[in-house]
Amino acid sequence: MSETLPSIGDMLTATVPMARTLNLVFEETTPERAVVRLPDQPDYHNHVGGPHAGAMFTLAESASGAIVLAAFGDQLSRAVPLAVRAEIGYKKLAMGPVTATAALGRPAAEIVAELDAGQRPEFPVTVSITREDGAETGEMTVVWTLRPNS
Questions:
Q1: CA–CA separation, 118 and 102 (whole Å)
Q2: Name one Pfam family in it (predicted).
Q3: What pLDDT, in 10s, does the model give residues 8-36?
Q4: Spatial distance between the Cα atoms of 98 and 134, rounded to a whole number of angstroms
Q5: Is the pLDDT of residue 2 over 80?
């Protein structure tokens, strides 16, 4: 009998109330890429009828967290991933559902090597936010760290 482990998306939805509140859909989560969708929901619209900037920030930050867990989940016994800082740019009007696609900004092996050397590595995760028509409506960079457990 095999036991099925929950997906990273299921774990984040269960443990991060904002992801659950916004009904985020984790479409793909691998160490190379995370894709998360924010459905179009009138309760989270802004004054022009698109997704609120705070909802888009949460979407992009959630995608960054998903890829960090996918890439470094095997390191959780010795380090905790933490977001250090984030910067977001809103480029075009977002209307309807939007999707965030995250990618690591440095090779995972390089980051783990720093952790192995007793350092507290920092690394960027870049996120592109797009509309259904493929237009990029925003971009975000979240700098993460793996804080060694004491």
A1: 27
A2: DUF4442
A3: 999 999 999 999 999 999 999 999 999 99
A4: 9
A5: no
- The per-residue pLDDT for range 64-105, each reduced to its tens digit, is 999 999 999 999 999 999 999 999 999 999 999 999 999 999
Q: Of the candidates 38, 31, 106, 108, which has an alpha carbon nearest to the alpha carbon of residue 67?
A: 31
Angstrom CA distances, 146 to 34, 37, 59, 121, stand at 18, 26, 21, 6
- The helix or strand, by DSSP H or E, that contains position 129, with its residue range, turns out to be strand 122-131
Look at residue 1 and tell me whether its pLDDT is greater than 80: no
Which residues lie closer than 8 Å to 82 by C-beta, 6 or more apart? 144, 145, 147
Of 70, 82, 90, the residue nearest 28 (C-alpha):
70
DSSP 74: G
Please report the pLDDT score of residue 150 as a whole number: 78
Instruction: Kindly give the interhelix angle for 53-72 and 108-116, rounded to the nearest 10 degrees.
Output: 70
Q: Which domains does the chain show, CATH number per domain?
A: 8-148 (3.10.129.10)
Residue with the larger pLDDT of the pair 81 and 2: 81
